[in-house]
Amino acid sequence: MTNDRGRLAGRVALITGASRGIGAAVAKRYAAEGAHVILTARTVAGLEEVDDAIRAASNGQAQATLVPLDLQQGEEIDKLNAAIGGRFGKLDVLVGNAGLLGEMTFMAQIEPERWQDLIDVNLTANWRLIRALQPLLLESDAGRAMFLTTGVAGGRAYWGGYAVTKTALEAMVRTWAEEMSETALKINLINPGAVRTSMRADAYPGEDPETLPTPDEITDVFVELAETNCLRHSEIVNAR
Ligand SMILES: NC(=O)c1ccc[n+]([C@@H]2O[C@H](COP(=O)([O-])OP(=O)(O)OC[C@H]3O[C@@H](n4cnc5c(N)ncnc54)[C@H](OP(=O)(O)O)[C@@H]3O)[C@@H](O)[C@H]2O)c1
């Protein structure tokens, strides 16, 4: 059943990168807390799997809105404004979660196309989401936005464009947060720490994934930062 007493009852939340990993776990948790979730990613099968899980957990009472899109297509991001505005008239929560790791290598050995992919997905797409969705977040009585960062922001050898784009993401989110400080919109960054996902396995192929928390185990902070009574703003919040 729909959870009309959940901590996010009645809220409308958009989550990027919801086809697997942390985004999928946040989607399921938000739905369990009563939010209506709008899910984006490129992999339709992954989005449908998350929707199936949401329906099953609610005995068919809840369902997600699926918006398959490639965040490297900026015009597709722009269309979210009209699509969400037309149906809901506002957006309560934005979770900018989608991310790309890229190749772990020397700066001088990164291929230009792979560099551009990282800039596009980890930085530009989040700016474009801000640009498209700020008006709808301000229509909410208590808009909330959060973006995923990492301990390697600031720079780390061999983490290349990932470290660089997450550093820039942090600067962008803090800049936006300062601009919005007189509004009801609260904006933060989340550092999830090491989490058992395919991205983590790509970064640390020799690591035993069983030693890491699952995405489902780190969703509390996402709920806290989405709640209307949470006034945290312009912080980097650790998930654990
Ligand atoms: N896992 C960790 O230990 C860890 C640590 C620190 C920070 N983080 C951050 O947490 C976030 C989630 O990471 P994760 O570990 O859950 O990664 P993941 O399992 O690799 O999932 C990444 C998500 O991003 C989406 N995505 C990637 N490129 C996209 C594109 N061009 N267009 C649309 N969606 C795209 C993927 O969907 P499709 O492929 O279906 O498009 C997928 O849903 C990332 O921002 C990551 O940097 C993770």
Question: What does this protein structure show overall?
Answer:
The protein is of the alpha/beta class. It has helices at 21-32, 44-57, 74-88, 112-139, 160-179, 198-203, 220-226; strands at 12-16, 36-41, 65-68, 93-96, 144-148, 186-191, 236-238. Helix 5 (160-179) links the parallel strand 5 (144-148) and strand 6 (186-191). The longest helix has 28 residues, at 112-139. 42% of the residues are buried. The structure holds NADP nicotinamide-adenine-dinucleotide phosphate. NADP nicotinamide-adenine-dinucleotide phosphate binds at residues 17-23, 41-43, 46, 70-72, 97-100, 121, 148, 150, 192, 194-195, 197-200.
Which CATH architecture is right?
A: 3-Layer(aba) Sandwich
Unreliable runs, pLDDT <50, ≥5 residues?
none
Question: How much helix is in the residues?
Answer: 40-55%
Give the integer mean of the pLDDT values: 97
Which secondary-structure class do the elements indicate? alpha/beta
CATH superfamily: NAD(P)-binding Rossmann-like Domain
Can you count the helices? Answer: 7
Main sheet: strands, sense, barrel? 7 strands, parallel
Strand content: 5-15%
User: Order of strands in the sheet with the most strands?
Assistant: 3-2-1-4-5-6-7
Could you tell me which ligands this complex binds, including any ions or cofactors?
A: NADP nicotinamide-adenine-dinucleotide phosphate
Order of helices and strands: EHEHEHEHEHEHHE
Tell me how many strands there are: 7
Return Rg in Å: 17 Å
Counting structural domains, the number is 1
**CATH class wording:** Alpha Beta
Distance between the termini: 30 Å
- What is the approximate shape? globular
